[in-house]
Specification:
Length: 93
């Protein structure tokens, strides 16, 4: 669970078609409303499947607040050379 600007969120995965690894997607779950909205993750190569999401809000080395995300890109939904672990961050305002 993440706490951002006083609200609680989670990142969850969902599979649109049972047994189809290409159909894994990541959603942002809003604990206040009960809504889960699909994220719009884009990679350089255009991978489409994302699983096992994690998110952490922390202070970056320079002291700014940031969110760090990790995901797994299944080979069935991966662009060439993008299958496997993905980690990225975004500075928060």
């Amino acid at each position: 669970m993440l706490r951002f600007r006083g609200f609680h969120y989670g990142v969850v995965e969902g599979q649109y078609a049972k047994g189809d690894f290409r159909s894994w997607r990541t959603f942002l779950y809003d604990y206040q409303t009960g809504n889960a909205d699909r994220t719009s993750i884009r990679t350089h190569g255009g991978s489409t499947a994302f699983a096992n999401p994690t998110a952490t809000v922390l202070r970056a080395p320079g002291g700014r607040p940031a969110a760090v995300f990790t995901l797994f890109i299944p080979s069935e939904g991966a662009a060439p050379r993008e299958a496997g672990s993905l980690i990225y961050f975004h500075y928060l305002k």
